[in-house]
Amino acid sequence: MNVAGGPSLAGGGMGRMRESATKRRLPAASDPHRLFEDTSASPSSGTLPPGSSNSTGGASSSSLAPQGPFLADPVSTFAAAYGSSLASQGKELVDRNIDRFIPVTKLKYYFAVDTVYVGKKLGLLLFPFLHQDWQVQYQQDTPVAPRFDVNAPDLYIPVMAFITYILVAGLALGTQNRFSPDLLGLQASSALAWLIVEVLAILLSLYLVTVNTDLSTIDLVAFSGYKYVGMIVGLLAGLLFGKMGYYLLLSWCCITIVVFMIRTLRLKILSEAAAEGVLVRGAKNQLRMYLTMAVAGLQPLLMYWLTFHLVH
Fold it and tell me: Rounded to whole angstroms, how far apart are CA atoms 150 and 264?
């Protein structure tokens, strides 16, 4: 019985083993209850199996790829062109408005100096008695640059002298233990305010006397700013030699600035009479001469007023 039943049992066992192996391999096929196929085992590189095609994806990628530079380049070019156009228009507008209120081109003329001119001009301001020719040189009805003519007015020396005067004033206040930023600022604003008042008073006087002259406002600022050179010399003398040195050198600088202003301004204010070689006669020419003397005489008063309290 055992011999007869043995083969049947063995055959039944072998059949069950084949059936179980078949069941293990069946899940690889599609499951009728599954909504999506498991594609996680597919290669990440995106390669398609043989025989398949991705016409939609290929068409979309090929059509979208060139649209980036096709759209970006015209937009960036248009933006750059529009920005440069706005910048040029803004620069032109600013230049036009600046030239209307601040004559930049004229200011360049007044700062066209060199070291030789500055040395000669300082010598002329401190020793005007040795100078003979005070006539400003012209080239094709235009005055030459200051670096070519020592008689031409400039703004470099007045501006630098004003700044140096403020520094020397701060030094003088520091030696007297009176230095403070507020006091130094008050000194600078006071000096600037007096300069503006002086220029406005001269312009008003020229208008009232009805003088036809080629003096401009910048010329008056330059001529009025030359007195700071003498003020610096007086303050330095006061710091080194005391009050006696201050009064001696300031008096000398006051005399030199008066001589300089008279010999310079008489050719400007009395330009008509000087050009014709006519003596200063008549009531109108006398008013012009008095105005020249008044402007020259105002310089020593302002020089003393702005420096006497700095020397003790």
Answer: 12
